[in-house]
């Protein structure tokens, strides 16, 4: 990620794993590692990415942010024009 000792690089990842642990995994026991992985996947793809808003993304969800920042390919006419 960033330079050694830069606390801000790790803050978002630490915050995410804290939320995941508290909201999804803390009160459950899993029969297998596959079941635990599936629970994590369902939480991330079914709740966190589409619904949770983040201040770092101007209070948009991860899903909305990705949709807004995907770049469309240039039309064929703009590819061959000189600036």
From TrEMBL:
InterPro entries: Integrase_cat-core, RNaseH-like_sf, Transposase_IS3/IS150/IS904. Residues 2-60 form the Integrase catalytic domain. Transmembrane segments: none annotated. One of its GO terms (biological process) is DNA integration. SUPFAM superfamilies: Ribonuclease H-like (SSF53098). This is Integrase catalytic domain-containing protein. It comes from Methylobacterium bullatum. The lineage of its organism: Bacteria, Pseudomonadati, Pseudomonadota, Alphaproteobacteria, Hyphomicrobiales.
């Amino acid at each position: 990620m960033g330079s050694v000792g830069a606390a801000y690089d790790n803050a978002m990842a630490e915050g995410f794993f804290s939320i995941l642990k508290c909201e999804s995994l803390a009160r459950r026991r899993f029969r297998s590692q596959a079941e635990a992985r599936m629970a994590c996947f369902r939480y991330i793809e079914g709740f966190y990415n589409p619904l949770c808003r983040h201040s770092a993304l101007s209070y948009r969800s991860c899903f909305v942010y990705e949709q807004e920042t995907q770049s469309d390919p240039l039309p064929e006419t703009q590819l061959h024009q000189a600036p």
